[in-house]
Amino acid sequence: MVTNSSERLTFFIPEAIEGASVPIFDAGISAGFPSPAEDFNEQHLSLDEELVKNKETTFYARVSGQSMIGAGLDDNDLLVIDRSLEPENNKIAVCFLDGEFTVKRLRVSDGEVWLQPENPNYPIINITEDNNFLIWGIVTNVIKKV
Known about the structure:
Helices cover 3% and strands 44% of the residues.
Protein backbone atom coordinates (compact mmCIF):
# COMPACT_ATOMS: atom_id res chain seq x y z
CA MET A 1 0.00 0.00 0.00
CA VAL A 2 1.29 3.43 -0.96
CA THR A 3 -0.30 6.56 0.47
CA ASN A 4 -0.31 10.30 -0.01
CA SER A 5 -2.14 13.18 1.57
CA SER A 6 -5.13 13.11 -0.78
CA GLU A 7 -5.77 9.41 -1.41
CA ARG A 8 -4.94 6.02 -0.09
CA LEU A 9 -5.20 3.13 -2.53
CA THR A 10 -5.15 -0.45 -1.30
CA PHE A 11 -4.68 -2.89 -4.17
CA PHE A 12 -6.30 -6.31 -4.48
CA ILE A 13 -5.52 -9.02 -7.01
CA PRO A 14 -8.64 -10.27 -8.87
CA GLU A 15 -7.74 -13.94 -8.30
CA ALA A 16 -8.64 -13.43 -4.64
CA ILE A 17 -12.32 -13.41 -5.59
CA GLU A 18 -12.15 -15.37 -8.85
CA GLY A 19 -14.97 -17.82 -9.29
CA ALA A 20 -17.12 -16.12 -6.70
CA SER A 21 -20.65 -15.65 -7.87
CA VAL A 22 -23.70 -14.17 -6.25
CA PRO A 23 -27.40 -14.64 -6.96
CA ILE A 24 -28.97 -12.16 -9.35
CA PHE A 25 -32.66 -11.71 -9.90
CA ASP A 26 -33.01 -11.03 -13.60
CA ALA A 27 -36.38 -9.31 -13.73
CA GLY A 28 -35.37 -5.70 -13.97
CA ILE A 29 -35.84 -3.92 -10.67
CA SER A 30 -38.65 -1.44 -11.05
CA ALA A 31 -37.99 2.15 -10.07
CA GLY A 32 -41.71 2.81 -10.37
CA PHE A 33 -44.45 0.53 -9.07
CA PRO A 34 -43.29 -2.78 -7.53
CA SER A 35 -43.70 -5.96 -9.54
CA PRO A 36 -44.88 -9.22 -7.96
CA ALA A 37 -42.09 -11.27 -6.35
CA GLU A 38 -42.95 -14.36 -8.40
CA ASP A 39 -41.70 -12.56 -11.52
CA PHE A 40 -38.11 -12.84 -10.24
CA ASN A 41 -35.96 -15.46 -11.94
CA GLU A 42 -32.86 -16.28 -9.86
CA GLN A 43 -29.62 -16.80 -11.74
CA HIS A 44 -25.98 -16.48 -10.70
CA LEU A 45 -23.71 -13.62 -11.63
CA SER A 46 -19.92 -13.55 -11.59
CA LEU A 47 -18.68 -10.04 -10.87
CA ASP A 48 -15.41 -10.95 -12.62
CA GLU A 49 -17.32 -11.77 -15.81
CA GLU A 50 -19.31 -8.53 -15.59
CA LEU A 51 -16.53 -6.12 -14.60
CA VAL A 52 -13.23 -7.60 -15.81
CA LYS A 53 -12.46 -7.67 -19.52
CA ASN A 54 -8.71 -8.38 -19.27
CA LYS A 55 -8.12 -10.71 -16.33
CA GLU A 56 -4.31 -10.61 -16.52
CA THR A 57 -4.14 -6.81 -16.40
CA THR A 58 -7.00 -5.94 -14.05
CA PHE A 59 -6.63 -5.04 -10.40
CA TYR A 60 -8.90 -3.74 -7.66
CA ALA A 61 -8.01 -0.83 -5.40
CA ARG A 62 -9.89 0.68 -2.49
CA VAL A 63 -9.68 4.45 -2.30
CA SER A 64 -9.96 6.90 0.51
CA GLY A 65 -9.86 10.64 0.12
CA GLN A 66 -12.10 13.37 -1.18
CA SER A 67 -10.41 14.60 -4.35
CA MET A 68 -12.67 12.66 -6.75
CA ILE A 69 -16.09 12.97 -5.09
CA GLY A 70 -17.46 14.95 -8.04
CA ALA A 71 -16.80 11.93 -10.27
CA GLY A 72 -18.60 9.64 -7.81
CA LEU A 73 -15.47 8.17 -6.23
CA ASP A 74 -16.00 8.22 -2.48
CA ASP A 75 -14.12 6.92 0.54
CA ASN A 76 -13.97 3.14 0.62
CA ASP A 77 -15.15 2.64 -2.97
CA LEU A 78 -13.57 -0.27 -4.79
CA LEU A 79 -12.06 0.66 -8.14
CA VAL A 80 -11.66 -1.79 -11.00
CA ILE A 81 -8.47 -0.79 -12.85
CA ASP A 82 -7.37 -2.15 -16.23
CA ARG A 83 -3.68 -1.66 -16.99
CA SER A 84 -4.04 -2.73 -20.64
CA LEU A 85 -6.19 0.24 -21.66
CA GLU A 86 -4.64 3.21 -23.43
CA PRO A 87 -4.79 6.45 -21.45
CA GLU A 88 -7.01 9.07 -23.09
CA ASN A 89 -8.12 12.59 -22.32
CA ASN A 90 -10.96 12.68 -19.78
CA LYS A 91 -10.43 9.10 -18.52
CA ILE A 92 -10.06 8.48 -14.79
CA ALA A 93 -6.64 7.01 -14.14
CA VAL A 94 -4.60 5.62 -11.30
CA CYS A 95 -1.22 7.31 -11.59
CA PHE A 96 2.12 6.93 -9.89
CA LEU A 97 3.39 10.46 -9.27
CA ASP A 98 6.66 11.24 -7.51
CA GLY A 99 6.61 8.03 -5.48
CA GLU A 100 2.91 7.97 -4.58
CA PHE A 101 -0.29 6.64 -6.11
CA THR A 102 -3.19 8.96 -6.87
CA VAL A 103 -6.45 8.70 -8.81
CA LYS A 104 -7.45 11.66 -10.99
CA ARG A 105 -9.06 12.56 -14.31
CA LEU A 106 -6.56 12.86 -17.16
CA ARG A 107 -6.47 16.12 -19.07
CA VAL A 108 -4.29 16.09 -22.18
CA SER A 109 -3.97 19.12 -24.44
CA ASP A 110 -1.26 20.53 -26.69
CA GLY A 111 1.27 17.97 -25.51
CA GLU A 112 0.70 18.76 -21.84
CA VAL A 113 -0.79 16.48 -19.17
CA TRP A 114 -2.74 17.56 -16.10
CA LEU A 115 -4.30 15.49 -13.34
CA GLN A 116 -7.71 16.99 -12.62
CA PRO A 117 -9.33 16.36 -9.25
CA GLU A 118 -13.13 16.34 -9.13
CA ASN A 119 -13.32 18.46 -6.00
CA PRO A 120 -12.65 22.23 -6.07
CA ASN A 121 -10.78 21.97 -2.75
CA TYR A 122 -7.90 20.16 -4.48
CA PRO A 123 -5.43 21.67 -6.98
CA ILE A 124 -4.97 20.63 -10.58
CA ILE A 125 -1.58 18.96 -11.01
CA ASN A 126 0.45 19.93 -14.08
CA ILE A 127 2.82 17.11 -15.03
CA THR A 128 6.26 18.33 -16.07
CA GLU A 129 9.58 16.74 -16.99
CA ASP A 130 10.61 17.14 -13.36
CA ASN A 131 7.92 14.68 -12.20
CA ASN A 132 8.43 10.94 -11.87
CA PHE A 133 5.12 10.06 -13.55
CA LEU A 134 3.45 6.88 -14.79
CA ILE A 135 -0.16 6.23 -15.74
CA TRP A 136 -0.58 2.93 -13.91
CA GLY A 137 -4.06 1.99 -15.19
CA ILE A 138 -7.50 3.21 -16.24
CA VAL A 139 -10.50 2.97 -13.92
CA THR A 140 -13.24 0.98 -15.67
CA ASN A 141 -15.77 0.48 -12.86
CA VAL A 142 -16.52 1.55 -9.31
CA ILE A 143 -18.12 -0.72 -6.72
CA LYS A 144 -19.93 1.21 -3.99
CA LYS A 145 -21.53 0.43 -0.66
CA VAL A 146 -24.88 2.09 -0.09
